[in-house]
């Protein structure tokens, strides 16, 4: 807090997360909160119930108890003598989600929010499902929370109660993966915390932030379109990180932007922030898929409102194996409409990258020629001039399938002069969800259906001479769990099309106010004691026909000097399949988390395996907890295993 806040009360800013403020998220938060305190704000970081050093047990995400607790925290902050009664809320990922959700609950003291890498629709745009398809990140995110929820509170904060609190968590938090798999359609479980169910409930100003390498940018467009409050949207080239530490770069002076926002809405100062365009995005230049992604070339562009009336939808018809722009000259290839069948090998998707990039480069998509060999694709003629897109493309298909459950993975790529294909955006559709995800219905084999596949939002320049490529496959493993039986999908070319949002360059883009260079508070003093490693490796054993994507996200070990606390943190993941057997797919994750000081320590390991049959998902999970005390003969203090079977629900 500011040094004079007791004498001159100031607004408060809340970040409310389950990621352990004292150790795990501390290095990031030390950059942010002291910076804002230095600009006249009290900043509160709160361990949610059942996490970090708070009492209780956390049993799921975005539940009513979480929101009621946050309302209590906001009311408490507003009543403190160092607070002037106004509270803002900010966060990234979970903290961005509950900032939006609390805004919809309208606690009186909450006056504005900043929501980064979050969504208004928990089912449509989260790490669980996409287009009615089960995401591989569902297992990955469940693994993250499995590890976090099993860690103890710090006895320096909670005292001798720490052991009892820890065991309450170990036995009570449960297996979240099972819960998420039990809700495979968009039911009330997902709707309850989805702000999109009633945008009018949000009554305070909203800044929504995202990155093109992240998984949450679609929500920024929806919030700009549907909210009826003062709002700003910002989308950069970044992955799942705050923009001042964002990769791929360029990073920006995001904390300066946050202070401008808070000064306007919490202090009533005219900072000019609301005189600027509603939506500002990074228009990405074309890059090779093998290029370094430390920085993504491009430029900033802006729109005063969304949807922007100047943006035109341009339509391309699928004809033969080509994308023909509607209204252009007659098809020069002389190819008639046709029915084209595709039954993709399971290897399509091994170079797709992660749904939400945390660590660009290795988790971003690679050259799509590796994927397109198992797909059908349609390519435009070389562009005669630069083509810029901003918004959300869509595909409209006429399709049939030979199985009652089938899926489509659709990718739009930029094909350069060397033939390299860089994926620009993609979309997924479980065809049983063709009429929505609340009440899916099986396909009638052989029957033709009209379906729409929305693609993720983009801002992208396609240079003259390059080609657009639309690729379609029936699998995309491990980004997406495959259908219960391998399906052949047949597409009618002349009755299918791609619609893209085209934005012409404008002179005023060059006159936009430039963002400042990133600033932050003094970094936390940390000493690395064991090296980490990060890799994505694809292997294929030709003797067994087993292919595996192996992911290591190992941060090694480090010491937080302020508390003399040693932290060890590592996660490994394996996603495999055998030849084209859709029921051979297997996802496995392992984690290790260790917290230790001279007089205290704990280590938790987890292992989760997800497999499937045509009718069930099968979960096998293990949790082991150790108290690191030299006096104990057997340091293991808790062990639990799970074997669960969850029926497939048209997924």
From TrEMBL:
It comes from the Bacteria. It comes from Citricoccus parietis. This is CocE/NonD family hydrolase. The keyword Ribosomal protein does not apply. Keywords: Hydrolase. Residues 259-521 form the Xaa-Pro dipeptidyl-peptidase C-terminal domain. InterPro entries: AB_hydrolase_fold, CocE/Ser_esterase, Galactose-bd-like_sf, Xaa-Pro-like_dom, Xaa-Pro_dipept_C, Xaa-Pro_dipeptidyl-ppase/CocE. One of its GO terms (molecular function) is hydrolase activity. PANTHER family: COCE_NOND FAMILY, PUTATIVE (AFU_ORTHOLOGUE AFUA_7G00600)-RELATED, PEPTIDASE S9 PROLYL OLIGOPEPTIDASE. The keyword Transmembrane helix does not apply. SMART domains: PepX_C (SM00939).
């Amino acid at each position: 807090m500011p040094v004079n806040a007791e004498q001159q009360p100031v607004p408060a800013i809340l970040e409310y997360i389950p990621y352990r403020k004292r150790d795990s998220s501390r290095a990031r938060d030390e950059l942010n909160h002291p910076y804002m305190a230095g600009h006249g704000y009290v900043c509160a970081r709160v361990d949610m119930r059942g996490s970090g050093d708070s009492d209780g047990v956390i049993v799921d995400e975005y539940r009513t108890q979480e929101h009621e607790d946050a309302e209590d925290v906001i009311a408490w902050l507003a009543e403190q003598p160092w607070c002037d009664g106004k509270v803002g809320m900010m966060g990234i990922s979970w903290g961005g989600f509950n900032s939006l959700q609390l805004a919809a609950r309208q606690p009186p003291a909450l006056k504005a929010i900043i929501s980064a890498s979050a969504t208004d629709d928990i089912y449509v745009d989260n790490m669980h499902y996409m287009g009615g398809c089960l995401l591989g990140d569902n297992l990955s995110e469940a693994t993250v929370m499995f590890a976090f929820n099993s860690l103890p509170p710090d006895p320096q904060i909670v005292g001798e109660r720490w052991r009892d609190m820890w065991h309450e968590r170990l036995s009570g938090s449960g297996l979240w993966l099972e819960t998420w798999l039990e809700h495979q359609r968009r039911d009330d479980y997902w709707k309850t915390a989805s702000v999109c169910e009633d945008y009018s409930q949000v009554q305070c100003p909203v800044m929504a932030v995202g990155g093109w390498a992240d998984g949450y940018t679609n929500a920024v467009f929806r919030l700009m379109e549907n909210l009826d409050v003062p709002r700003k949207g910002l989308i950069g080239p970044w992955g799942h990180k705050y923009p001042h530490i964002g990769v791929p770069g360029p990073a920006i002076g995001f904390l300066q932007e946050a202070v401008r926002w808070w000064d306007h809405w919490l202090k009533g100062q005219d900072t000019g922030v609301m005189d600027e365009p509603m939506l500002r995005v990074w228009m990405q230049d074309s890059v090779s898929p093998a290029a370094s992604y430390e920085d993504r070339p491009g430029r900033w562009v802006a729109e005063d409102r969304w949807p922007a009336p100047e943006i035109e939808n341009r339509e391309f018809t699928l004809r033969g194996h080509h994308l023909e722009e509607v209204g252009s000259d007659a098809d020069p290839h002389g190819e008639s409409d046709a029915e084209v069948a595709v039954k993709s090998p399971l290897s399509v998707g091994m170079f797709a990258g992660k749904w939400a990039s945390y660590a660009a480069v290795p988790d971003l998509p690679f050259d799509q020629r590796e994927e397109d060999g198992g797909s059908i694709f349609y390519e435009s003629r070389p562009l005669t001039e630069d083509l810029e897109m901003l918004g959300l493309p869509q595909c409209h298909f006429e399709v049939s399938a030979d199985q009652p459950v089938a899926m489509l993975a659709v990718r739009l790529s930029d094909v350069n002069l060397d033939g390299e294909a860089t994926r620009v955006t993609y979309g997924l559709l479980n065809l049983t969800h063709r009429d929505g995800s609340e009440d899916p219905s099986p396909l009638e084999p052989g029957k033709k259906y009209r379906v729409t596949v929305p693609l993720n939002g983009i801002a992208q320049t396609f240079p003259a001479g390059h080609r657009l490529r639309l690729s379609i496959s029936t699998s995309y493993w491990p980004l997406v769990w495959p259908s219960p039986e391998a399906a052949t999908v047949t597409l009618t070319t002349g009755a299918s099309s791609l619609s893209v949002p085209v934005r012409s360059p404008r002179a005023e883009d060059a006159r936009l106010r430039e963002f400042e260079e990133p600033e932050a508070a003094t970094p936390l003093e940390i000493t690395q004691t064991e090296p980490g490693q990060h890799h994505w490796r694809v292997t294929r054993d030709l003797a067994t026909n087993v292919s595996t994507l192996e992911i290591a996200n190992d941060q090694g070990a480090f010491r937080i000097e302020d508390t003399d606390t040693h932290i060890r943190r590592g996660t490994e993941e394996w996603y495999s399949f055998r030849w084209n057997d859709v029921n051979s797919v297997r996802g496995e994750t392992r984690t290790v988390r260790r917290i230790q000081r001279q007089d205290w320590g704990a280590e938790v390991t987890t292992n989760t395996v997800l497999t499937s049959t045509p009718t069930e998902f099968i979960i096998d999970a293990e949790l082991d907890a150790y108290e690191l005390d030299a006096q104990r003969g057997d340091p293991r203090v808790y062990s639990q295993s799970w074997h669960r079977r969850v029926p497939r629900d048209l997924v």
